[in-house]
Amino acid sequence: MKTLIKNVYLYNKTVDILIKDNLINKISDTIEDKEAEVFDATNLAVLPAFYNMHAHSSMSLLRGFCEDLPLFDWLNNIWKREATLSAEDIYNGTRLAILEMIKSGTVFFADMYWHHSEIIRAVEEMGIRANVGICFMNSLGRKTIEENFDFAKNPTITKPSLVSLSIAPHAIYTCDKDLYKECYSFAKKHDLIFHTHLSETQKEVEDSLKENSMRPVEYLNSLGVLDSKTLLAHCVHLSEKEAEIISQNGATIVHNPCSNMKLASGVFDSRQARKYNCKIALGTDGNSSNNNLSMIEEMKIASLLAKVHYLDSEEGNSNTVFSWATKNGAEAVGINAGEIKEGGVADLMFVNIDNEKMQPNYNIISNLIYSADTSCVDSLMCDGKFVMKHYYVEGEEEIIEIAKRYK
Amino acid sequence: MKTLIKNVYLYNKTVDILIKDNLINKISDTIEDKEAEVFDATNLAVLPAFYNMHAHSSMSLLRGFCEDLPLFDWLNNIWKREATLSAEDIYNGTRLAILEMIKSGTVFFADMYWHHSEIIRAVEEMGIRANVGICFMNSLGRKTIEENFDFAKNPTITKPSLVSLSIAPHAIYTCDKDLYKECYSFAKKHDLIFHTHLSETQKEVEDSLKENSMRPVEYLNSLGVLDSKTLLAHCVHLSEKEAEIISQNGATIVHNPCSNMKLASGVFDSRQARKYNCKIALGTDGNSSNNNLSMIEEMKIASLLAKVHYLDSEEGNSNTVFSWATKNGAEAVGINAGEIKEGGVADLMFVNIDNEKMQPNYNIISNLIYSADTSCVDSLMCDGKFVMKHYYVEGEEEIIEIAKRYK
Question: Do the chains contact at A313 and B267, CB–CB below 8 Å?
Answer without folding.
Answer: no
